[in-house]
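Issue 218. Parser rejects a valid record. Input:
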Amino acid sequence: MQKILVPTDFSDTAFNAARYAVSFARQAKATDVVLFHAYGIPAEATSTVFAMIPTDTPEFRQDLDRRMLQVKHELQSLLAEYVNIETQVSPLTFLEGLHDAVKDVTISAVVMGIAGKGPLEQRFIGSNALDAANASPLPLVIVPHTVEYEKIHRVLFAWNKKQPLQEHQVTAIRSFVAGLDATLEVVHVSTGESGGEAPEELLRAFDLSPAAYHEVQHTDHATGIQEYAADSNADLLLAIPGEYGFFADLFHKSVTKRLAFNADVPVVIIR
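Output the parser choked on:
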C-alpha cells in the first residue's frame, strides 16, 4: 500500500478513525496518510442544514485549513515517527470529493469512522460511510467509534454461498490481507441446516486449509457474523457488496445503527 485516505469531519469519531488509520498504515507499510475533508452541501440538503454551515468564504476556508492542521499536529504528536501526514480540503460534496480523491493512483485504501458525537453527526457521518461503501473502488475500512487499533493478525471474511466471488475480488482480498501480513479465515452463516464441508473452489481461490473455513448457524445473518467475530477474536471483518451476505444485511437501514453503536470489530468492504 502507498497512501491511506482518511475522511474527517473534525468529530471525535473521525479523529479516532484517523488514529486507527495511522497505525493501520504503519502495519500495511503505507508511506502517507491523507486527511480529507469535503465541505460541499448536497443538493438534497434541507434549509436547516444550509443555515448551520457557513458559506464558502476566504475566512471559512482559512478556518478549515486551520482545523485540518490542528488534527494533523495532534496525530503527529501521538504518532510522529510512524507515517507522513498530508491534508486535503475539497469544495465538493463528500461523495464527489471522495470520487475525485481516489483517482489518485497512489491511494490504496480509505479508512473512516461511522458515527459522530451527536444525532446530526450520527446521521450524516453514518450516511457518508454507507455511501462510501457503495461507491469507493478501493478497500474501505469502517471503524466503529469505540474501537482502538490493535495489530491485525486475523481477517475474517463473511461469505455467503449464494454470492459468487469475482476474480478481481479474490485478487483484491488476497492482496489486502498479504499487505497486512495477516491470515484469512472464512465464515458462513447458515439459517438452516449445516452445509457441511468447505467448498473446494473457495479454499483453492484463497489457498486455505479446510480448518480456515467456519460455518455457524443463526437465524440472523449479520448477528451471527458479529457474534462469531467477537467470540473468535477476529481483528477485522471483511465483506463484499452484493444482494446476499453480510454486507447486504449489515448495511440495510434497519441494522446500520447496530453497526455504528455496538460493533467491536472494524469492517473492510472490498468491491
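Fixed in the parser; the record now loads. Confidence is low (pLDDT under 50) at residues 47-51, 116-125, 253-262.
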